[in-house]
Amino acid sequence: MPTPYQLDFFEALKELFELRVIYFTARESDRQWDLSLSGNGYSVQVLRNNLLAKLVQKKITSFHFSNQIFRILKNDKADFVIVNGTYWSPNVVFALRYSYKRKKKVAFWSEPVFPVANRLFFKVKKVMLGPVFRYSHLLLAIGKQAAESYRRYGYPKQVFNIPYNINSSLFESKNLDPALFQELVTRFKPGREVVLLSSGSLIHRKGMDILVKAFLQLPDHLNAHLLLMGDGESKEELQQLSANSNRVHFIGFQEKKKVPYWFNLADIFVFASRYDGWGLVINEALAAQKPVICSSTVGAAKDKLVNLQNAIIVDDEDVKKWSQAMEKLITNEAYRNKIIENSQVVKQELSSDFNAKKIYDIFRAIE
């Protein structure tokens, strides 16, 4: 399905390839994005899920199976195929197998395989990963954590690190509408307040409760505000946790075109997710040149962030350390600037242009 990070990547890939994109669905029920289904300079087709898929999706939203997939794969003229999605989903399995059998160069682009401790479950998952192992020529791992997870299950072929990526230029302040940005400044920074921003679904896994607890431990005289961007089932609980503090703001879900304004408004970005295979919001914060405080369980942190150099890394559940990290950056502008300066190389590595060129070089090398 179309996602903000994929659209940026496709825009970069089309400059290097004759690109065709096949979406398994227009939208999943747990996603709020309202994104274009038409490609600008590349072709797009959206598949229709069959009756079986619609029934299964009542329980498992990532299950996709379309009768159209067979005709599309039979007539496809691509030289290179990148498959992305739930590895056991029928559309993914058929796309891998048919493309491989037709002598195309096939890559599977994936987040980490979720670990299991039970040996029986491990063996079952390894069997389910069989089509990826058998019918791909290489793995495009979304970060080191993904690469390591596939190696643990015995993936035997080449692995390349291609993280989620964005069009970094969209987050540069020079590309914002000054009037729209000034409206936010007037609203949230009338007295030069320090703004902390977090972005993500308001669910337990994203750790927004940790941020609220840590923020409320800060002294009032710091003149700081916490903005939570996103929506979800935990919103009411989080509002109660914040005790209706006038320094904690719920700004709701924001469409892609508005997101850069909020990141530029912020002075500090905080992300306390209890688990994220990658965490695209880290890309966005670095693109907007904001210092980051991130939990140690986020894939992007393990891959690209170095504690006390280009970010502050905190154990996800340690509220006291989160509060201390917040206070350190709020009160030390020089340190904030140092972290921003140290993160510039990483910012480039997480751009769509950079990773599209990596894809081009990878496929050229295996022709």
Attribute tags:
Rossmann fold; 367 residues; alpha/beta; 17 helices; four-stranded parallel beta sheet; six-stranded parallel beta sheet; single chain; globular
Structure write-up:
The protein is of the alpha/beta class. It folds into two domains: 178 residues, 3-Layer(aba) Sandwich (Rossmann fold); 182 residues, Rossmann fold, CATH 3.40.50.2000. 41% of the residues lie in helices and 15% in strands. The chain has 17 helices and twelve strands. It has a six-stranded parallel beta sheet, sandwiched between helices. Helix 13 links the parallel strand 11 and strand 12. Helix 1 crosses helix 17, helix 3 packs parallel to helix 4 and helix 8 packs across helix 11. The protein is globular, with a radius of gyration of 21 Å. The two termini are 28 Å apart.
Supply Rg: 21 Å
Q: What coarse outline follows from CA principal-axis ratios?
A: globular
How would you classify the helix and strand content by structural class? Answer: alpha/beta
Strand order, sheet with most strands: 9-8-7-10-11-12
Give the domain tally. 2
Share of β-strand residues: 5-15%
Q: Distance between the terminal alpha carbons, to the nearest Å?
A: 28 Å
> Quick check: average pLDDT?
93
Give the helix proportion (percent range). Answer: 40-55%
Largest sheet: number of strands, sense, barrel closure = 6 strands, parallel
* Name of the level-1 CATH class of the largest domain: Alpha Beta
Protein name: Glycosyl transferase family 1 domain-containing protein
GO molecular function: glycosyltransferase activity
Organism: Niastella yeongjuensis
Pfam families: Glycos_transf_1
